[in-house]
Amino acid sequence: MSAPTTTGESTILIFGASGDLTARKLVPALFQLFRQGYVRTSPIIGVARRNKTDAQFRTELRATVLDAADQQTSKDWRRFEQLLHYVQIDLSDQTAYEGLVDSVAELESQHRTPQNSARVVYLATTPSLFDDAVSGLHHSGLIPPLEHKERLRVVVEKPFGHDLASAKELNHTLTRWLHEDQIYRIDHYLGKETVQNILLFRFGNSIFEPLLNRNHVDNIQITVAESIGMERGRGAFYDTAGAVRDVLQNHLLQLLCLVTMEPPALFEARQIRDEKMKILQALRPGSPASINHWVVRGQYSAGLIDGEPVPAYRREDRVSPTSNRETYVAMNVGIDNWRWEGVPFFLRTGKRLPERVTEIVVQFKQPPLNLFSTVECDGDLCDIVETQPNQLVLRIQPQESIFLRFSTKRPGMQYHVEPVVMDFDYEDHFSANLPGAYERLLLDVMRGDSTLFTRSDELLAAWKFVTPVLQAWEESLSSPELYSAGTWGPPAASRLVSEYGRAWREPRLDE
Ligand code: BG6
């Protein structure tokens, strides 16, 4: 996005390298960057408590990353794995960091890393270790003096706290020794190609932007739907989090910011984040006292996904059988600013919905006069057919696309209305594969570009918005409304929109 401040080659330290994230996301992304020539000489140092040699570390990663690789990929891996190293330390032991400093220096000299290149520390550990990790970096001298602050970047994964108070505490822990500019909070949604395209679509074209405001838009819907449940033991974490903390507070609110923010004066990190921040500040929740009027929470019961039976949430592995955790949330919120005043925003996310689909739907107002109303009959059944509101759909995943729905005249002797779709499909248009979110984000950290990372004030504003909802649920004695797995959420979610004379758009993947 903005101009890179470094060539990108950096020493990469992954704290908590024995975890799932390293093998599933980080190393595959670094391998792709290597294959594309972005990473050539950067040593990648896994740091964790278990005793392991470099060779063992490489073999383990190879087994996960290279699943049925072709010959060329295996050849590339053999060159790439020369960059992979392992250092065993207990991150909670402050005395161990001295040894880490020596190992890093030794490996940098082995790889001929230039003296002033940056170091990236990826905290792929539980947040309970962040304090020890950052203190260890400080006391061992791995945090450079302020005038060279760009030489260290620390990447943090969500969850960034559990509510407003804990998010503040976490920020405090990190900023005790680090400068805010050195902290890169990853929201992997911002690394998705189609999410980045939202800003280009809006501010790089002149025909849509003049319509995106209260004069023309009737409502905006954002859906982050998933058909998966609690696979791979995910229930243990999810049962402490739920849909608001896991997806709405971060991914969904970020999408809302991108689709509603004002154009920045310059396309650079600070200005883009400032504009997003203004949206978060203008978000208008309903009152915590009448929460059921504007928020719906649901939990899945047993049902069918792709025709296969799946268990209820409470029967999932590592989930409490009496859990009241929400696996679905829908909200009706407003944005108090000149552009959006009075426009309802309907947000929803959930697990075990019929499809995995993320999309933003901008629904425009009806034309002022309805000139084309005709009666159409199918046998004995007759219906009045009118023009449908125009919709602009930004499909983030799967089948990344943008489409515009409008009304046309069906050929014939009468004015029969037929909605049609004009679409742009990424895969059809660009033959290259879309880069993975982690590839893009890791490269940005290495280049020192923080545009796609969440700043602390954004994070706290998002927590400030959702925390009253979470508190109200905790205090209430009610349980989430059940919905069968494989359906679009509890009945109350339909009421949330129908009360305002609207309906959810049911995403159709064949569009
Ligand atoms: C993660 C959540 O942040 O995002 C998961 O913790 C969720 O629960 C995932 O499944 C969704 O990401 P994606 O890229 O698969 O849409």
Task: Please supply descriptive tags for the structure shown above.
511 residues, Rossmann fold, Dihydrodipicolinate Reductase, domain 2, 2 domains, ten-stranded mixed β-sheet, globular, disordered N terminus
Structural description of this entry:
The protein is of the alpha/beta class and 511 residues long. The protein folds into two domains: 10-157, 3-Layer(aba) Sandwich (Rossmann fold); 190-498, Dihydrodipicolinate Reductase, domain 2 (2-Layer Sandwich). It is 33% helix and 22% strand. The protein is built from 15 helices and 20 strands. It has helices at 20-35, 54-65, 71-80, 97-110, 130-139, 164-175, 193-203, 235-241, 243-260, 269-282, 291-294, 426-429, 437-447, 456-475, 491-498; strands spanning 11-15, 44-48, 84-88, 119-123, 152-156, 183-185, 217-225, 283-284, 295-301, 303-305, 308-310, 328-335, 345-350, 357-364, 374-378, 381-385, 391-397, 401-409, 417-425, 481-484. Helix 6 (164-175) links the parallel strand 5 (152-156) and strand 6 (183-185). Helix 6 (164-175) runs antiparallel to helix 14 (456-475). Mean pLDDT is 92; it is low at 1-6. The structure holds 6-O-phosphono-beta-D-glucopyranose. 6-O-phosphono-beta-D-glucopyranose (BG6) binds next to helix 9.
